[in-house]
Specification:
It is built from 25 helices and 28 strands. By secondary structure, it is an alpha+beta fold. Among the domains are: 307 residues, PurM-like C-terminal domain (Phosphoribosyl-aminoimidazole Synthetase, Chain A, domain 2), CATH 3.90.650.10; 172 residues, Phosphoribosyl-aminoimidazole Synthetase, Chain A, domain 2. The strands form five sheets. The chain has a seven-stranded mixed β-sheet with strand order 8-10-7-11-9-12-13. It has a seven-stranded mixed β-sheet with strand order 23-25-22-26-24-27-28, with helices on both faces. The protein starts with 9 loop residues before the first helix and ends with a helix.
């Protein structure tokens, strides 16, 4: 067996380095580390480990600003998923990740494997997945391309999650032409584990066996991480071979086999083979433990014949895991995986060399020091250019062109506010029997914890148009809205995961958006005691030089001590309505301004974090005291849309009271002021008195009725049934080409 890899010819190596996404100075650094030209396999390893997708080389300097600690945080960023304590010896394990580029090229498989990958990130920590969510952004819904991508993505998410048996319980969808050539598919999984039985990806123990489990390795997904770290061009659809193929039935078997083995003490470390496949899993596990690792690729289960070392190391075939076992436990582990009809192979061992050595067919194909793959990975503080802050829009200067009833009917039917039933009906939100609040029933999904009274509240949130106008305020608002949605069901918000979707970081204006969004998020996380425990960065979301809207998607998790405490948004008749929070009639960047006035301008609504916390804590206390029968936060579309959504959820109606003097009616009803909630209560007076005592702005808004109409202060009536019909019709009509 040869002892050294065969280096590529110098000119060929330099050419391939450029094709693989390495900058000239980065390639020079590779040469310095190795002291020679790399082999093909070594070059592939450096290119994926130093890709934006794996190394976060443009974002790490900014992500360090995010708060990541709290007494309930067990594991923050840096592992497969974040972990928080949720009481009674239990932990919630969760993360959100992107599959944006693959979902543009091959929507069904791109979305499906995004779900599969995030499931593995969670159960590799020892948690059984209990819920999936998503955050989706698509282009102009009138375009056939948008409809094709939307259809494929939704079928992919539903097909994978439904087959695995994990309910898809929540999410969000936006449409904007900025996503025409680059949709966003962000997938989130939440799992439950014992707080004292969390598994990590830190390899230890010289001589311990390295074990491959799951499905066989094929050629799908090779250089997927590199593809996800570059802009799209006109030939992007030719990149289909870089999109992985998923098998949810194998994933289900893999979950059960891993859970069974985790009941023993055989596992030292475990890692999902996600982006960059066998490369990232082996490098990261050995690197975190300060170990070396030797792999014999002849032992890797292969789906295709004649695979090279380069192909096996970079393949992103799905449903695979890498484990470090205690010595002598191989037979026990193999019995479990064979029982579940999965491949099992010992493919290497840990060493004390601090190097990754890869052998295949009698040759050393790679011999690389591990530390530089991480410690000497490029780290950039790229130039930033601040987004100019737009002027505040004076609501009085914007006339109402259609009137309140017509505006409401158009808003509830617009693509950003219409019913998502066409989407969520394709997801099994009830599989497992633990979903207490399913899609459309509440501001956050609520999932019972099996055999416990407790429940989790889960949400995903972001308002990209706010972020485009003012990234700092938009980042702040995304966190605040997640906190607010969890609060609106009565849960205590505990932590977030994020998915930072931005354009090309080499452009100062894009990097400026990223840095500002992080500043806003950090301020909100600190003010709301809502730390970041995991996340993902997806950059280069551009096609032909046109960037997406900056989209820092937030996945929030909270806890209810008793699932019976959760409230939904369906409006019961015979209640008094109370608006909590201050209304100034903020129309800048509102949906009313865009959909009714045909304008996209102005500063987004500011977020007063002290008021946000004060108002939310007051609302949560009233819910937990049993005083609230329904609750809904005010966000997209403003106050009247919030009331209409509550009414459409139940069929009840409401008689509404006059807005305060001095505010134009359309600004009062459709302004998107933050930190507000609509509460349905038996009696308004006690709640208003408690709000005054707490220094919380609150006002009586009206009363709910059984008549099925919204009656405006001037006596005009809007049929709830007609609103619901328009609300429900939009997506089905669009998907039929209407």
């Amino acid at each position: 067996m040869t002892d050294a890899p065969s280096p590529l010819p110098s000119d060929r190596a330099a050419q391939l380095a450029a094709e693989f996404g390495l900058k000239p100075d980065e390639y020079e650094r590779v040469l310095a580390i190795l002291g020679r030209a790399p082999s093909l396999t070594e070059l592939g390893i450096f290119s994926v480990m130093w890709s934006e997708h794996c190394s976060y080389k443009s974002s790490r300097v900014w992500l360090r600003e995010l708060p990541t600690k709290a007494p309930w945080v067990i594991q923050g960023p840096g592992e497969n998923a974040g972990v928080i304590a949720i009481g009674e010896g239990l932990a919630a394990v969760f993360k959100m990740e992107s599959h944006n580029h693959p979902s543009f090229i091959e929507p069904y498989q791109g979305a499906a494997t995004g779900v599969g990958g995030i499931l593995r990130d969670v159960f590799t920590m020892g948690a059984r997945p209990v819920a999936n969510l998503n955050a989706l952004r698509f282009g102009d819904p009138k375009l056939p391309l948008t409809r094709r991508i939307l259809d494929g993505v939704v079928r992919g998410i539903g097909g994978y999650g439904n087959c695995v048996g994990v309910p898809t319980v929540g999410g969000e969808v936006n449409f904007h032409p900025a996503y025409n050539g680059n949709p966003l598919v962000n997938a989130m999984t939440v799992g439950i584990a014992r707080a004292d039985r969390i598994f990590y990806a830190r390899a230890t123990g010289v001589g311990n066996p390295v074990v491959y489990v799951g499905s066989k390795t094929g050629r799908d997904g090779i250089h997927g991480a590199t593809m996800a770290s570059a802009e799209f061009s006109a030939d992007s659809e030719e990149k289909r071979p870089t999109v992985q193929i998923g098998d949810p039935f194998s994933e289900k078997l893999l979950i059960e086999a891993c859970m069974e083995l985790m009941e023993t003490d055989a596992i030292v470390a475990i890692q999902d083979m996600g982006a960059a496949g066998l490369t990232s899993s082996s490098v990261e596990m050995a690197g975190k433990g300060g170990m070396g690792i030797e792999l014999d690729l002849d032992a890797v289960p292969q789906r295709e014949s004649g695979m090279t070392a380069y192909e096996m190391m970079l393949s992103e075939s799905q449903e695979r895991m890498l484990m470090i076992l205690k010595p002598g436990r191989e037979a026990e582990a193999e019995r479990i995986f064979r029982k579940w009809e999965l491949d099992f192979a010992v493919i290497g061992r840990l060493t004390d060399s601090g190097r990754i050595v890869i052998r295949h067919q009698g040759r050393v194909e790679a011999d690389i020091p591990l530390a530089p793959l991480e410690s000497e990975a490029p780290l950039y503080r790229r130039p930033t250019a601040e987004t100019p802050k737009p002027p505040v829009l004076d609501a009085a200067s914007v006339p109402d062109p259609v009137g309140i009833p017509a505006a409401l009917e158009r808003l509830v039917a617009c693509p950003d506010l219409c019913s998502r039933r066409w989407i969520w009906d394709q997801y099994d939100s009830m599989v497992g029997g633990q979903t207490a609040k399913r899609p459309g029933a509440a501001d956050a999904a609520v999932v019972r914890i099996e055999d416990h009274a407790r429940a989790l509240a889960l949400t995903t949130d972001c308002t990209p148009r706010y972020c485009a106008a003012d990234p700092e305020e938009g980042g702040k608002q995304a966190v605040a809205e997640a906190w607010r949605n969890i609060t609106a069901v009565g849960a205590t918000p505990l932590a977030i995961t994020d998915n930072m979707n931005f354009g090309n970081p080499e452009k100062p204006e894009i990097m400026g958006q990223f840095a500002a969004a992080v500043r806003g998020m950090a301020a909100a996380c600190a003010a709301l005691d809502f730390p970041v425990v995991s996340g993902n960065v997806s950059l280069y979301n551009e096609t032909e030089g046109r960037a997406i809207l900056p989209t820092p998607a937030i996945g929030g998790v909270g806890v209810l001590e008793r699932v019976t405490q959760a409230v939904g948004l369906a409006l019961p008749p015979g209640c008094e309505l109370v608006l909590v929070g201050e209304t100034r009639g903020w129309l800048g960047q509102s949906l009313w301004l865009r959909e009714i006035a045909g304008r996209e301008e102005g500063a987004p609504p500011p977020v007063d974090l002290a008021a946000e916390r004060r108002n939310g804590e007051f609302v949560r206390a009233r819910i937990l005291a049993g005083a609230v029968r329904a609750c809904h936060d005010c966000s997209d579309g403003g106050l009247l849309v919030a009331v209409a959504e509550m009414a459409m959820a139940s069929g009840a109606g409401a008689v509404l009271e006059a807005p305060p003097a001095g505010l134009p009616p359309h600004a009062f009803w459709f302004g998107e002021d933050q930190g507000r909630y609509v509460l349905a209560v038996a009696e308004a007076a006690p709640l208003l008195a408690a709000a005054r005592a707490a220094g919380v702005p609150a006002a009586r808004l009206g009363r709910s009725t059984a008549e099925g109409a919204l009656v405006l202060p001037d006596g005009r009536s809007i049929s709830v049934a007609s609103l619901r019909a328009a609300h429900e019709a939009t997506l089905p009509a669009l998907m039929e080409g209407g």
